[in-house]
Amino acid sequence: MALTKAKKAEKVELLTRELAGSTTAIIGTFAKLTVAQDFELRTVVRNAGGRYRVLKNRLASRASQGSKVEAALQGLKGVSSVAYTSGDPVVLTKAISTWVKENAEFTFKLAIVDGKLLNVAEIQQLATLPGREELFSKLLYLINAPAQRLATVINATGRDMAVVLGQGVEKGKFAGAIAL
Questions:
Q1: Is the Cβ–Cβ distance between 96 and 25 less than 8 Å?
Q2: Where are the domains of the chain?
Q3: Which tens digits make up the pLDDT trace of 144-180?
Q4: I need a labelling partner for 174 at 20 to 30 A (CA). Which of 36, 62, 104, 154 fits?
Q5: Nearest Cα to 164, choosing from 175, 173, 151, 155?
Q6: CB of 108 closer than 8 Å to CB of 100
Q7: Spatial distance between the Cα atoms of 147 and 47, rounded to a whole number of angstroms
Q8: Which letter does DSSP use for residue 143 in this model?
Q9: At what angle do helices 89-102 and 35-47 cross, to 10 degrees?
């Protein structure tokens, strides 16, 4: 079914608004994807904080002009779809990569993260990185560890002195009076 110019303009406007705030876009292609698989992929992307659209290449090119993901959506060939987000790119990439392992009908074309184009190998590397929250927790641990060790060492001196005095009292080492 052919789209009228008004419908195309409406689709371009909708996609333009959605892509305006996006910092990450993952472009893929699919062959023989069933409706159930497409629904499952959309659910996976939505749960990862992203949006998913099947694209008409020319409309995507027009809609992306002036956005941060423009470079990824220019000059697309063949059947294309895009998953995009303004959130954590690692979460979205991990979610799609996990889904792709079970569904060979979908393959990556390219991605763009904060203005940097990524090829298929770089997309796979991005999927193996830890997520933003995990990185923050590791960083906080590294910041906290030296202070925690210092507090342990400072407390150890007093604790060790108390243990030595306690053992001296038990063995009767301090039985005599102190003469001044």
A1: no
A2: 5-129, 131-171
A3: 888 888 888 888 888 888 888 888 888 887 766 555 5
A4: 154
A5: 173
A6: yes
A7: 38
A8: H
A9: 150
Q: What is the pLDDT of residue 142?
A: 87
Nearest residue to 41 (alpha-carbon basis) of 87, 86, 102, 90: 102
- Contact between 118 and 111 under an 8 Å Cβ cutoff? The reply is yes
Measured CA to CA in angstroms, residue 48 lies from 14, 51, 96, 170, 176 at distances of 21, 9, 9, 63, 74
Q: Which stretches of the chain score pLDDT less than 70?
A: 1-2, 175-180
pLDDT value of position 43: 92
Mean pLDDT (the chain, rounded): 83
Please tell me the number of Cα atoms within 13 Å of 33 on its side-chain side: 22
Q: Is 107 left (phi over 0), alpha (psi -120 to 50) or beta?
A: beta
Give tens-digit pLDDT for 128-146.
Answer: 888 778 888 988 888 888 8
The Cβ-side half-sphere exposure at 22, using a 13 Å CA radius, reads: 31
This prediction's pTM? 0.67
